[in-house]
Amino acid sequence: MPNASLIHIVERLSSAAAPQAADSRNSGTCGQLFRGLSPESLEFLLSRAHTNLYQAHEEIIRQGEDPRSLFLILSGQVKTVRYNAEGQETTIRMLQAGETFMDAIIFMGGGSPVNAVAIENCELLCIPTATVRAHILRDPQFASNLLHIVTNHYKNAMQQIDNISIKTPVERLGYYLLRQHLEQGADSLEFNLPFQKSMIANHLGMTPETFSRALAQIKKSGIDIEQKHISMRDIFALCHFCDPDLSAMCPRSNSSECPNGESCGKGGCPH
Amino acid sequence: MPNASLIHIVERLSSAAAPQAADSRNSGTCGQLFRGLSPESLEFLLSRAHTNLYQAHEEIIRQGEDPRSLFLILSGQVKTVRYNAEGQETTIRMLQAGETFMDAIIFMGGGSPVNAVAIENCELLCIPTATVRAHILRDPQFASNLLHIVTNHYKNAMQQIDNISIKTPVERLGYYLLRQHLEQGADSLEFNLPFQKSMIANHLGMTPETFSRALAQIKKSGIDIEQKHISMRDIFALCHFCDPDLSAMCPRSNSSECPNGESCGKGGCPH
DNA sequence: CGCACCATTGATATGGATCAATAACTGTGG
DNA sequence: CCACAGTTATTGATCCATATCAATGGTGCG
Fold first, then answer.
1. Which whole-number Å values give the CA distances from B255 to B26, B100, B134, B260, B261, in the listed order?
2. Domains along the sequence of chain A with CATH
3. Nearest nucleotide to A228, CA against C1' atoms
4. Which nucleotide lies at the shortest CA–C1' distance from B201?
5. pLDDT tens profile A170-215
6. A161 interfaces chain B, CB cutoff of 8 Å
């Protein structure tokens, strides 16, 4: 009964995406995946999809395996990581309800370059690889949506690359915090770390110890950190970690309030 | 005269992609961009495209600018880099004839997150942004091609991330060399560094000094390096830098010759 | 209440950046 | 063809940042 499951799932999508953000939040990528699709197109996808439950720490897909599906997180958290020969891991992405993964990997050919692991118990919507691959040739809008999603992953990966290669740990952390601040509602002075600190540390290319020291460093400049709860003394406390990419997300970037002025948004020319 | 320019350009594409690789080389991405397109579709794209010359060191597009076109390199070399506030640069990609760039960035929305700079004098085919964006909605095959291209950029970016965050400089260099070896003809004992050493060093997230010392290190294990020319004493000299991603490119990875055996291709599970 | 697990803090060691000097190479003009 | 300047690569010496090792403290769960 495709129609029943369709309604069922779409309902859950909306409710999954909404709670985190009545404000200016990006509302995940689920909107992006289905945006502008005709009812028939959506029905085609959803009638071939199914949902699945995973336990905390369960491997959803392993490095090297062929990707079975494109996944959309209905509830819970997931991370994608890469392991090297010695078993050290690099966290590529950390995901929450409303976000998709394996969306890019489906088109890479060959086995998955990452492991996907459930951080906590979660429920996933699974759209089979073959369905997705076939559907982009039938519905250009769907192809366009995927292109935007993948393209944004790539952009984030580029940011991750230069964060790791030219920024100090404190700068990387500040950048991450600012980003969270902007994503979780740029008008509030408070926000939360959505993941475990050690996991964020790995994502930012540093050890938990270094992460902790970086936090201590940042506390000195008007930011209170208590467990996962962050509160800034003033709304500009994190502004000197801004860069052109983040300023595009900031409601104050073009106003005269912005302490970085032109230099923030337009930087990049070394001459 | 769209038809004349079409033939003209397609001819140059073939000749640009061919010389580097009579062998097993990937033949760039130009094949990917136009693969499987109908003559009408190709004509549509090319009739709206034009070519442009750039001088060495000229900035083709700046960080923050709106991307005007998708570019295909007809001749010469190009790099894409990001600058941080202090003017330090991170090299994201280094490109040769036959490869495309700004292909992903066109779909990101907002200004370009990278600078593109001509490494040497070069000639580029430019397909206007609007043309590309419109065309993916008209030709699903074109959209699919772009999806594959962007997706591969993303995969490379992920490799770059864990190279930088968990490998030593020697390992990063070894990995890069092995990749060049496989791309430039996996059966030859010789290959060349396609770019300046200092540029490769930056791409690999290290200083030129460290790069140089890493080269010296690698010389000790049966690899001769003279300027840009590399020759390996035996075909397996670089094998211990292999990983699942590279083994997929290696003609010997599944044979019993492979010194890494199963461990190379299947690695990744820490348990 | 006690056991894991995670975060923090301190002490130490080390790898790669930085600074500095030299050498090799590239191209240019006499 | 050689001399020169400018660039790129190599090699050496030093220093500092961050990983590592180690111990403690806090939190949540059974």
1. 21, 34, 46, 10, 8
2. 2-157 (2.60.120.10), 167-266 (1.10.10.10)
3. C7
4. D9
5. 999 999 999 999 999 889 999 999 999 999 999 999 999 999 999 9
6. yes
The answer to whether residue A92 neighbours chain B at the CB level (below 8 Å) is yes
User: By the 8 A CB rule, do A70 and A126 touch?
Assistant: yes
pTM of the model: 0.91
At B125-158, the pLDDT tens digits run 999 999 999 999 999 999 999 999 999 999 999 9
CB B126 within 8 A of CB B94: no
The reply to whether B205 has its C-beta less than 7 Å from any atom of strand D is no
B158 touches chain A (CB under 8 A): yes
Helix or strand run (H / E) with residue B128: strand B122-128
Q: Quick check: B231 CB within 7 A of strand D?
A: no
